[in-house]
Amino acid sequence: MKVSDLRGILQYVPRFRERIFVVAVDGDIAGSANFANILLDIAVLRSLSIKVILVHGASQQIARLAAERGVPISDDRGFGITDEPTLKLGIEAASRLANEVMQGLTTVDLRAAYANAIIAHPAGILGGRDYLHTGRVERVDTKCLEILLREGIVPVIPPMGFDGEGRTYRVNSDNIAIEVAVAMQAMKVIFMSGHDGVVLDGEIVKQFSIDETTDILKRKRVKDPNIVSKLEHAVSACRQGVPRVHLLNGNVNEALLSEVFSHEGVGTMVYSNEYQQIRRIFKKDVRAVMALIRESVNSEELIRRRRADIVNHIEDYWVMEIDRTLVACVALHIYPEQNVGEMACLHVGKDHANEGFGAKLMKFTEELARSKGLDAIIALSTRAFMYFQQKGGFEETTADVLPPERRAKYELSARNSKVLIKQLKEKAAPVSRAS
Hints:
This protein is an alpha/beta fold. The chain has 16 helices and 23 strands.
C-alpha cells in the first residue's frame, strides 16, 4: 500500500467511525476462495472502529447438500416455497457454514457470535400457494445486536428466522440484511455476490439514485434475478433511511475496501440522497480549490490565482462534490456591459479524469449563463482548446471579442491563449421584403 492510499482511507475514518455497516454475503461467496480475504477486510473495518454485522446466505450450500443426499428441494434461495425436506437441509447447511464463518473470523482475530436476532412469521399464502416454511421478517432483536456490537463482537446472522414458539423459517438473506440495516440505523448495506454490480451496455454503472434504480427495474433492464432482488431491496432500504447500498463482486480481492474507501468504488451504489452535486463554493472551500488546481497551474494549463482573487469573486465559482469531497471546479465571470460570460478555471482532479465531469460542468455553466440571459460564453485555453470545441461546441475566434477589461488582462499575461466563443442566442435573421 502506498502512503497516498493510506491518506485516502483516513479521510473517511471520522465519517465512518462508530457507524454500522451490514455486510451481506451470498452463499456462493461464503463458499469461495476469496471469502477469507473478505473476512480480513472486515477486520480492517473493525480496526477503524466501524461496527460490522455479517449476514450470509446459504443457497449454494443447500443445493450442494441436496445433491449429495439425492434429496429434491423446493427452493434454495428463500424466495419460493420451502417444504419440510428443504428446511431441514437449510438448517444443516447454515449450521455447517456458521462453523466455517466463525473459524474464519477467529483466524483474523475477531470475536463473533452467531445471532438468532430475526423474529419471523410465515410468508403465508401468496398467489394461492402456501409457502410453508418460508418466512418473512417480523422484527429484528436490536437489543441483542446492540449488546454484541457494544462489546466489540461481530454478529453473524444466518438466513433463518425464528418465531416465539421455536419454529424455524427459511428467510432470504437479502431481506434480512435490509431489515437489520433499517432497524439498526446502519450507514451502509454491502451486498457481495458473484456479479460485478449492475452492468448495462457492457459497463458497470457506478451509482444510481432511488428513482433511477426504480426506473431500470420498471423497464426490466436487469435480467438476473439475484441482482434484481438486491436492487429491489436497495430501494426499500434507501426509502427507509439507509443512505447507501452497494453491490460488489465478492470474488474480487479487496473489493470491499476499494468500494468503501474511494469516491467512485468498484461496484454499483444505490443512494438515498444527493451523492454527486454541483454547488457554489464557500470561503472554507478556497484552500481546497487552490490545491485541486495546483497541478494545472504549475503546468500552465490554468492561470495562477491567489486566494484573494477567488475570494473577491467567490460568487462566480462552483465545485462538483462527490460524497462531500471536491473533485472539480469551474467559474463563470460575467461582463454585464457586453452581456457575455467567461467560462474559467474549469478543472477536474486527476483521480476523476475521463469520467465525464468536465463535460458535465461545461453543460452546467452553459445552462447557468442561459438562465442569466447572456448572449455568449467565451473561454481562453492554452492546451485544452480542442476539448472545448469537441465537448462544448465552442468555436475559435480572435481576441477582439473579449470585453475591454478582459482584453487588457489577456494581453498583459502574454500566455497567447486561444480564444473560443459559443453563442447562446441566435441572431435574428434579416427580414426580406416580399416582391
